[in-house]
Each structure stands twice: as structure tokens, then as C-alpha cells.
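May I ask for whichever protein you like with its C-alpha cells?
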Amino acid sequence: MQWLKRAVLIVLLLLVALATMDFMLENQQSVQLQFLEQQSPALPLSLYVVIAFILGSLLGVFIGWLITTRLRLKLMVQSNELNRYRKEIDKLRTQAIKD
């Protein structure tokens, strides 16, 4: 089953690569972007779109990593708190048995 998942992933990646190549070959007209009175050099439209896609993907991965890290830290703090409470309960149980 693992080989099937890997094969499907490879096929999907190849399809995305082919679609990207087709997009880049069909959109070769040069454009010049302007933002806040700043102009970019005239580059192919497909290059701007692919760069925006890559930057968006990297930003998504980074934000996901930040969220995961924050949740792991919160889990670690709560796990330590739970262990502290368990030790306190065990201590109270042993004191109740001695009395």
C-alpha cells in the first residue's frame, strides 16, 4: 500500500510540474509591476506568478510550523502541570493512608 501512495504522489508532482511548465511557456509576455511608486523590471508574467506561488507556499509552511510549535509548547506545559497534579494526588493518598 505504501508503494501505491508513493506512486500517486510522484504522478501528482509530475502533473504539477508539467502544468507549471505549460503555464510558463504560454505566458511569456513581459510585464512591469508597480507598487507605491516603485516599478519592477520587465519580466515574464509567468515568473511573477510562480514566484508568488512559491513565496505563498513557503509562508504557509512557516505559519504552520509556528502554530505547531506553539501547540507543542502548550502541550508540554500542560503535561508538566498534569504530572505535578498526579504527584500531589499520590502524596495526599499516602498521607490519608498513614493517618
In short: Residues 2-70 form one domain. The first strand starts at residue 30 and ends at 31. DSSP finds two helices and four strands in the chain.
